[in-house]
């Protein structure tokens, strides 16, 4: 066991968790380890101080397990978290925090901006979303609109059983995928049922295959 570092051990333990859960470990003042997931990334870095509004701080301050929803005001994205403090020789040493993506808040439409105004679009009608020219473009059969939310924010808002991040610039509705082709540059190319072709990048390929089961 002497050859194992704390970080390598945490990496192995992290593999036991779902691909949708991020893991953060801290001492009493700062984060010492962070493993982001494909579904949620709070952009924590080892050495970052623990902010008062976080669930990690609440667990350390109360010296108790804390499980609650945290709004987007803290890290820029909403999330559900569970933080558990740990001790050594009776002294508080730090905290382990599991970070889960926020579930959809009951909405079933995306209200997009068009040239003429705003149009509510049912989730089921959305084929894919693309970030281009610093805007999020929402594609459906009948119209194209834009939205102020980032793709990361949409990842937590859209129902996860239908929408999958497949690239840093794309989220797709799997119900509108017509075929999946291998591709040397992006691992896969998705042909949507409106004939659009969407890349699946290397960093998302294994997660994408796992969720679609192929």
Mind explaining what this structure looks like?
- With 214 residues, this protein is of the alpha+beta class.
- The protein folds into two domains: 6-101, 2-Layer Sandwich (Beta-Lactamase); 109-212, OB fold (Dihydrolipoamide Acetyltransferase, E2P).
- The chain is 18% helix and 40% strand.
- It is built from five helices and 15 strands.
- The protein has helices at residues 6-14, 55-62, 72-75, 151-157, 202-212, and strands at residues 22-26, 31-35, 66-70, 79-88, 91-101, 109-113, 118-122, 128-132, 135-139, 144-147, 163-167, 170-173, 177-183, 187-192, 197-200.
- A five-stranded antiparallel β-sheet has the order 2-1-5-4-3, sandwiched between helices. A five-stranded antiparallel β-sheet has the order 10-9-8-12-11. Strands 13-14-15 form a three-stranded antiparallel β-sheet.
- The longest helix is centred in the last third of the chain and has 11 residues, at 202-212.
- The radius of gyration is 20 Å and the shape is globular.
- The model has no long low-confidence stretch (mean pLDDT 85).
Overview features:
5-stranded antiparallel β-sheet; 5 helices; 214 residues; alpha+beta; 2 domains; Beta-Lactamase; OB fold (Dihydrolipoamide Acetyltransferase, E2P)
């Amino acid at each position: 066991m002497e050859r194992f570092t704390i970080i390598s051990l945490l990496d192995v333990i992290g593999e036991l968790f779902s691909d949708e859960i991020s893991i953060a470990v801290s001492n009493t003042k700062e984060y010492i380890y962070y493993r982001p997931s494909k579904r949620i990334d709070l952009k924590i870095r080892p050495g970052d101080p623990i902010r008062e509004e976080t669930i990690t701080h609440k667990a350390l301050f109360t010296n108790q397990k804390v499980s609650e929803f945290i709004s987007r005001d803290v890290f820029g994205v909403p999330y559900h978290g569970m933080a558990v403090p740990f001790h050594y020789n009776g002294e508080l040493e730090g905290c382990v925090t599991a970070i889960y993506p926020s579930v959809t808040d009951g909405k079933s439409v995306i209200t997009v901006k068009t040239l003429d105004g705003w149009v509510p679009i049912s989730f089921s009608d959305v084929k894919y979303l693309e970030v281009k020219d610093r805007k999020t473009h929402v594609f459906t059969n009948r119209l194209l609109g834009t939205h102020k939310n980032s793709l990361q924010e949409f990842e937590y808002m859209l129902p996860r059983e239908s929408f999958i991040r497949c690239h840093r610039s794309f989220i797709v509705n799997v119900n509108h995928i017509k075929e999946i082709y291998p591709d040397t540059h992006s691992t896969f190319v998705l042909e949507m049922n409106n004939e659009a072709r969407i890349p699946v990048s290397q960093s998302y390929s294994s997660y994408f295959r796992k969720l679609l089961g192929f």
